[in-house]
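Thread amino acids onto this structure.
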């Protein structure tokens, strides 16, 4: 069995909900986890790292702008050379914004694309550079309902998520034969977050009936996909509460 403690796992977009659960899940299995958020949120990511370290795991937080090519290159180089060989990379930033089409400025459209698509490309490219040396590893992208269809008011977000899905498909076809598992996860539904609790209390009330996605349950699925035998790899799967319409 593989000794996960000899490897690192990078989680970009290690927020307070899904990202934190993903970080903890891979730490529980021995990985040296490297959660990252934008530089302005470094205190929060450091708190997550401290929680994992105090529980007997290994973690180091990073403040990284995933849209900055040089920053991403430097981040991956530091993890690979100073912490441990990179075996898992999860791209999980949030970029969900609602703008009616006439209110969608070019700046909004570009910024959403940079975070949800361009940053995913940079992340996947750097991960591939290191993983190809060992012919192994997992590169996971977090998608959304918007990855599959464009809803009213979400032209910027949907187009970016469509693009990220295309990047992941292309990478899977290119890197799969190299032993690298690329997967795309469609998260179709509200997640148990402070954002949903504060702004959508009626939706959040469904938590009592398991009507919204639980971050720990999402993390369980990512781990399952990561540990799949390569004779039966999943590229794309969707996750939603049992009562969610689709």
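Threaded sequence (246 positions):
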């Amino acid at each position: 069995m593989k000794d996960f403690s000899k490897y690192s796992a990078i989680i970009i977009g290690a927020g307070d909900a899904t990202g934190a659960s993903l970080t903890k899940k891979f730490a529980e299995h021995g990985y040296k986890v490297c959660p990252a958020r934008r530089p302005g949120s470094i205190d929060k990511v450091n708190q997550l790292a401290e929680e994992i370290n105090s529980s007997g795991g290994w973690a180091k937080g990073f403040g990284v702008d995933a849209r900055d090519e040089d920053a991403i290159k430097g981040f991956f180089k530091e993890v690979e050379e100073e912490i441990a060989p990179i075996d898992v990379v999860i791209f999980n930033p949030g970029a969900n914004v609602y703008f009616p089409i006439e209110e969608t400025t070019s700046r909004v459209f570009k910024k959403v694309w940079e975070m949800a698509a361009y940053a995913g490309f940079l992340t996947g490219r750097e991960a591939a550079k290191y993983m190809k040396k060992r012919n192994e590893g997992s590169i996971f992208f977090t998608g959304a309902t918007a990855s599959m269809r464009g809803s009213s008011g979400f032209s910027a977000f949907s187009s970016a998520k469509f693009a990220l899905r295309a990047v992941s498909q292309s990478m899977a076809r290119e890197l799969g034969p190299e032993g690298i598992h690329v997967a795309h996860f469609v998260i179709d539904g509200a997640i148990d977050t402070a954002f949903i609790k504060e702004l959508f209390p009626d939706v959040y009330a469904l938590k009592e009936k398991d009507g919204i996605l639980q971050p720990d349950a999402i993390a369980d699925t990512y781990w399952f996909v990561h540990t799949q035998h390569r004779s039966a790899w999943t590229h794309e799967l969707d996750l939603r509460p049992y009562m969610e319409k689709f």
